[in-house]
Design goal:
126 residues, mainly alpha, 7 helices
Length: 126
């Protein structure tokens, strides 16, 4: 977690405290969008609690706006934060969970995204 917070802080110019809040919201978003088997993997990589605030977002665009609103940072910075966290996850998660992150980056993470459902079914053996 500390490595990710420092990376987010460096890439966005945010304090480590603000970076941590953003990471927690991204974790909450992932937890709200994905089955527990996948969100558990993400939680293990992030090593942070998931913010219940992030679970309210229905898309990555919603999440960016929510991060901006709750932290007071510009949406552009919130988008950078999201990209850094999802890129970190993609690098750190075992295959094929990185593909799930790609789908989230593409916006297919909204509830009911057929591509994401098909991918997760394959990963989870459903």
């Amino acid at each position: 977690m500390e490595e990710l917070i420092k990376l987010v802080s460096k890439k966005t110019g945010l304090s480590e405290e603000m970076a941590e809040k953003g990471v927690e919201m991204v974790a909450g978003y992932a937890q709200g969008q994905l089955p527990s088997a996948v969100s558990d993997q993400i939680g293990g990589v992030l090593g942070t609690k998931a913010s219940s605030t992030g679970k309210k977002a229905k898309s990555t665009d919603d999440l960016v706006k929510l991060i901006s609103k709750k932290t007071g940072i510009p949406e552009e910075t919130a988008q950078t934060l999201l990209n850094v966290v999802l890129g970190y996850l993609k690098d750190k998660l075992p295959d094929p969970f990185g593909d799930v992150v790609d789908m989230l980056l593409g916006g297919a993470g909204s509830a009911g995204g057929a591509g994401l459902d098909d991918l997760l079914g394959g990963i989870l053996g459903q």
